[in-house]
Design a protein that fits this description.
By secondary structure, this protein is mostly helical. The chain is about 60% helix and about 10% strand.
Length: about 140
């Protein structure tokens, strides 16, 4: 196993893949507090806020590696964040399925070779998804 393969197994979403119950519990409390404070701090209704969640890159490019990322800290926290957001009436765009579909059909990657930030392809795909969102449509009507 080379250093890159080892990093892909140890890290998902630029954070350690492993976790203990304390880390998971603390993180869930932070998400809960975030959603408690969000309307108070922004003064916005849930129909005016859109969340875009990144996929599990680079794991999503390979089905085998992607399966290994399932159950990681990043995976569990993505799912928890989405679950809470939807339950509270926020719109959420999960980029994981869109990234996988585009990568599988066109072989595209969504980050720069030298860092994990979205490249032009990633940003364009995210922009397409945002344009198709209910929150964006609402802004166009005003």
């Amino acid at each position: 196993m080379n250093d890159t393969d080892e990093a892909i197994e140890k890290f998902v979403g630029n954070t350690r893949a492993d976790f203990d119950e304390e880390r998971l519990s603390d993180s869930k409390r932070a998400v809960d507090k975030f959603f408690e404070e969000l309307p108070l701090q922004t003064g916005l209704g849930n129909d005016r806020i859109l969340f875009v969640l990144d996929g599990m890159r680079p794991q999503l490019y390979d089905p085998g590696t992607g399966m290994k990322a399932n159950g990681s800290y990043f995976d569990l926290m993505r799912k928890y964040f989405m679950e809470v957001a939807v339950k509270k009436g926020y719109e959420v765009i999960d980029m994981q399925p869109a990234f996988i579909e585009k990568h599988d059909s066109e072989g595209m990657r969504f980050e720069f070779p030298t860092d994990g930030h979205w490249n032009e392809i990633g940003h364009n795909l995210v922009a397409e998804k945002i344009k198709a969102s209910a929150v964006y449509s609402k802004f166009l009507r005003h």
